């Protein structure tokens, strides 16, 4: 669901394709006819942002037909009646009107997922980058739980992480509410443990998400900002809003490999070593911690990211010094022993990586989580179902902005292109500039031909971009990525956010498309 | 000309975490292959993993700290740049409180860097205003 796997996670897609040849049934749930549909049992091209209507109708259908294991639910879950009530409106007929899918297809996918001996839901930003991203994920959890697809091999919920160390950055505590090892900052016992180790008293109030930090910058209430390896000017929604926020900060530091669009706005720019110049670990999408090694001698004037931070810490009067990344990792393993205690660099090298939790040196790592659900006994803390309602994308198309724009990635490029613009000339690429992908019917109506430059306009900004006429998108839906700085797609996107996660609705806003005379 | 050395590492692009073998000669990556022993990719690579490394050798790589002087970012020493950062952060913390400071951490950097980043935010700046590009 909401995963353009073959372009964004090509190697995972290869594994899926291989499994499909051996009989795995793949249902691709995505508004676009992405490449994965070629390997799918069925493609369900739902309207952008209608995922909850589909999932609720699947749950409705499963409950109505009794396609669930009553004992599994009694042992492992609570609040099934609340969920039943919540989805009662979502008949296949109603969901069909909301999603654009046929009733038969909705019933088919519900039956296939419920009756499969093993079923897994893989998702990416197509699920989370909505104003209702958290609710989308709740419903994925509901669907997995009601079908018993959790806690055994070949089942589960698989969020495919977009960046190499999204998982690790969060687990290390780069979140406003969590300390290292995914323990809450507000928990006195855990916080005290860190206070003791670091000989400092810690702020117990949960901090702000990036979204709220930007809001506070716009209000002039955030005075200092330190950005490490990120280019929010191009990557975040509603570019003029982001720029205003950053301009409003009194003092901004950017630490990066390049003078990015964001670095150009900074008061201080600090150059750091990059991948292949540093030692350390990354945690991948299935919790595998793996060793990253330096292969190159960096320019002599460059420092490791962490070394820059410890230098500043010392100047600010807090002593912090590490001889190596391994010494830092030792501290991580001590503070988050239940997760990483058994993951010395030595073991990580010997094993080609270990999956956490791995509390001690004899522990083999944990391949499958949540196995308690499969033990056939009543859980002490069963999982509640959390029913959610469908809410349409915030900005609906209208007569002035008749198209829905959804955004994503393309195969060869990566995010704001600071790294992937350096492919050598001989590398043959499918796409070397941004396009607005539109359906042939829409192109015909607007008399736009393939390859023609057009203007795409939203309530927040406009860009000029080449049109690509393709049946990959539905009529009235257009697609763009944000890889190329000369077509800053995020000038168009909307600053509406999920109230819990703070993630922006990158996947849906209303735009107009015009010919350039 | 130097010898070619082979370095076993992990791809720095998406969250799949493919194992790679980098071939390095004269401090330049000359070739990247999928690591057959890596459990995740079993020797495979995509175009980004195999050919997306050239940015490491780009001339545009920053090699000097820059500070804004007279409206322009100009190259400077580490000493000057880091003292400025330390002083400014200290001043903001003293005048407006720790929560007037914030950090955007990096989901591309190592666990070790991310650990130090949040320790810096919490123990040095005194704020939990730390978040990253994993959210947006």
TrEMBL record, chain A:
An example Gene Ontology molecular-function term: metal ion binding
Domain of life according to the entry: Bacteria
Keyword Iron among UniProt keywords: yes
SUPFAM superfamilies: ADC-like, Formate dehydrogenase/DMSO reductase, domains 1-3
The Molybdopterin dinucleotide-binding domain, residue ranges: 403-510
Xref: InterPro entries: Asp_de-COase-like_dom_sf (IPR009010), MoPterin_dinucl-bd_dom (IPR006657), Mopterin_OxRdtase (IPR006656), Prok_molybdopt-oxidoreductase (IPR050123)
Alphabetical keyword list: Iron, Iron-sulfur, Metal-binding
GO cellular component: membrane
Every Molybdopterin oxidoreductase domain range: 1-314
Short name of one Pfam family: Molybdopterin
GO biological process terms held by the UniProt record: respiratory electron transport chain
The name this protein goes by in its record: Putative molibdopterin-dependent oxidoreductase YjgC
Automatic annotation (TrEMBL), chain B:
SMART domains reported for this sequence: Molybdop_Fe4S4 (SM00926)
Residues annotated as domain 4Fe-4S Mo/W bis-MGD-type: 4-60
UniProt GO MF annotations: 4 iron, 4 sulfur cluster binding; metal ion binding; NADH dehydrogenase activity
Lipoprotein keyword on record: no
GO BP term (any one): respiratory electron transport chain
Alphabetical UniProt keywords: 4Fe-4S, Iron, Iron-sulfur, Metal-binding, Oxidoreductase
A GO cellular component entry from the record: membrane
UniProt cofactor(s): Mo-bis(molybdopterin guanine dinucleotide)
Name under which the protein is recorded: Putative molibdopterin-dependent oxidoreductase YjgC
Organism: Texcoconibacillus texcoconensis
Lineage: Bacteria, Bacillati, Bacillota, Bacilli, Bacillales
